[in-house]
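Re: the request from the purification team.
They wanted to know what the chain is likely to look like in 3D before they choose a buffer screen. I agreed to run a prediction and write the result into the notebook, where they can find it.
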Amino acid sequence: MNAKNRPWPALVAMKGLLVLPATLLLAAAASAQEPPPPPIEPGLAPGSRLVEPRVDELVRRMSERLARAASFALVAEELHDEVPEHSPRQQLTATRRVALRRPDRLAADVAGDALNRAFWYDGKTFAALDKEQNAWTSGAVPPTIDAALDWVLDTTGTVIPLADFLYTDVYDRLMSDVQRGVYLGIHEAAGVPCHHLAFEQATIDWQLWIDAGEDPLPRKLVIAYKTEDEVPQYAVTIRKWRLDATLPDELFQFEPPEGARRVEIPAFTGSGGNASPGAAAGDVKGNAKSEVKR
């Protein structure tokens, strides 16, 4: 029990046995006037769902606002932990830019300490480029953003960071496995006041900051992988949003750079195997919850 919810003694201790009855009477009167302490939260069990109504409604509103946007572009700053087996923990940073046009256009670029990659999706083909290696790959994928993201994750194991915010139904992606959700207050993220929410799932804890202004957009996400050694974290702050942006077809079309070499990915050619286009596309962590959906 934390200090905020800890019940305080009704009376200060007094010397002498003669004052004990009065003390008990005063304590009884105080308990009759004061509301009972809040009940102790039950422990989480498989399949349990203890989500505050306000929290659920805020996530729904955010999801609905994103779904109404025919297109959007964003700029985000990422932090993620690497915990090598025989080395100190490392925190790596990156800047990610994403452009989306529903129902079948998506592109992203990431540059940072360990990543310098991009991918393009034009409704038919997914192409990925590792800029440092000057290597690329491409292949046919399903004809919608939702189906293409599912295919990339299910077929290759590649996680595309921020993917949960790119689906048509963000609420379902975020909340389907949540066991507990609580409201923490109005706190700042990306320079704006936000509703700060915290969630628990079986293998991760995560926090979400939703803009408290006119557009309830996600501004920050933090995930802690509590079942992994050293509990690594992934954090992303979305600093810029452009809703219903004008995004031309050329933005989603890939042309291999001069001298770039093509890498064949078995999953794209239908020959099986475990190779992943994440080597070119820039997945942050193999379990970085598309990102929360695990």
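For the purification team: The radius of gyration is 25 Å.
Please add any questions underneath this entry.
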